[in-house]
Task: structure prediction
Amino acid sequence: MTQTRAPHDRRNDIRNIAIIAHVDHGKTTLVDAVLRQTHVHRKIDDMGERIMDSMDQERERGITIRAKNASVTYKGVKINIVDTPGHADFGGEVERTLRMVDGVLILVDAKEGPMPQTTFVLRKALALGHKAIVVINKIDRPDAVIDDVVNRTFDLFVHLGATDEQLDFPIVYAAAIKGQATLDVNKPGTDITPLLDTVLEKIPAPAINANAPLQILVLALVQDAYKGKMGIGKIQSGSIARRQNVMLMGKDGAQIPGKVSDLAVYSGLERVDADQAAAGEIVAVAGLDDVSIGDTIADAENPIALPRVTIDEPTVQMTFSVNNSPFAGREGKYLTSRHLRDRLFKELETNVSLRVHETDSADRFLVAGRGELHLGVLIEQMRREGYELQVSQPEVIVHRDVDGKVTEPYEELTIQVPEIYQGAVIEELGKRRGELRHMRLIHSDVGTSEMHLEYHIPTRGIMGLKNILLAKTRGTIIMHHVFAAYEPAEERDLLVSPHGSLVAFEDGTSTGYAIFMVQERGTMFIGPGVDVYRGMVIGENSRDEDLDVNVCKEKHLSNMRASGSDEALVLTPPKEMSLEFALEYIGPDELVEITPQNLRLRKRILNPDERRKAKKAGK
Result:
């Protein structure tokens, strides 16, 4: 049985903090201001490339997916800054990251106030006992409502069960894009030093035991082209040096001896080599090929393991399978079940909140994650790496206890929508068993008044909701949702209308003439000149039933007209197909075919006659 050694002293020349925000551009701008103030100058674009980029998707989506590290030195104190993902779907990253720090900066927009993503990360931080500094950013906005935002932030702390000490949080007012911060909103700041001074004053130094044996809890992994796999974590006790013998404490009590081949610490935006590091520092250790997240790098003579990180269980699952469509193998580099299996299990090394299970078919795997976005990011990354695969409709994971009681995941849904559309939103959420918890009208002197709605809703009620509400509100809705808890399953079915698809009837290339004849049946997903195959979904039917259509039909020459006179045809532009839309759209009998160059929707059974037989047999 392992024991942890209680820390008893503090390293006063180090501060470890995490930045929490729902808008990553705001985090980027704030960190850039801090770097410039401490003479680590980077352009915003370059800083964003380093801080926010472990994948291109982060810049495209405007969210943080992987936690990042940076550091600055201010008044002789090293401040390690960790950028945390704000979305609940990447909670595995959040839960690990917060174990490395001793305090958090809560970055709140002076107009929008605290958002649901902020709520999720803040709940985790308060549960760990971290002190918080609230930074009200963009105070220079003409529509800023600073007093209201401060009150809502305090209410959020109370709602999350903050202690009296945590409720006594300092507030820093900032205009990060100008590099200014102040402690008094009525006195404009000149630079960012008030924020840095507050960090030194309010965030405690790391609790350590410098004289105890070495202990580092590995909370992240990074692959270096020259040094190999590196484990990242905070030194809880002792010290570490290059070429030092250590003991890697793995799962189930496994002890693997090893040697530190390389050691790095963070300076500015870079990892820099170091000969040694002391307790309280965040380090990257190379030379331990078997290291994984949750392991402890311990002293070789007196190895003591730290408690492993506990991660919330996934709530959504879908099937990943080998692409077997008629177009399989045209565009991808990795096509086989072996490629798919190796890639999914490789992902488990760093994506600790992911679960992968093999099925009775060697070509199919059951993959579970924290939400549709979590799984969507993985699918998009695999696609960019050259994989071809098919995925099924996302399904919620239900739990059944020993008494046979069934529970399902519920989420807190926050919606902000112009007042004129509130009726359509409330009606749709009522069909999906959403329980309205709070409603507030936000008046505006310069624009349309907006309605702020908060719902408690089953996770399965959220699936497919975004596309429907975007259509009903003409794209004006803003919605966020975070996992709340597993609760008794709703016995009644959701009153969600099934959709009908337009399905290609034959193989070939779509023509403008055929699409013109079909487009009045519904919304098209393709335009002319697109290769299609029988069973491929090429549009959404306006009725809730599937319809087989021929989009390859050509206009033939006759004595009444010429075959080439299509100038009079007016085609409606097809609906843009994104991965998020595809995952929300497909039904239980449909799949998303994913290749490096294309996204296609298809029926599981391509032959229309066999599909009808299967439907009758299912009834």
About this structure: DSSP finds 16 helices and 38 strands in the chain. Residues 1-7, 43-54 have pLDDT under 50 and may be disordered. The first strand starts at residue 9 and ends at 10. The two ends are 55 Å apart (CA to CA).
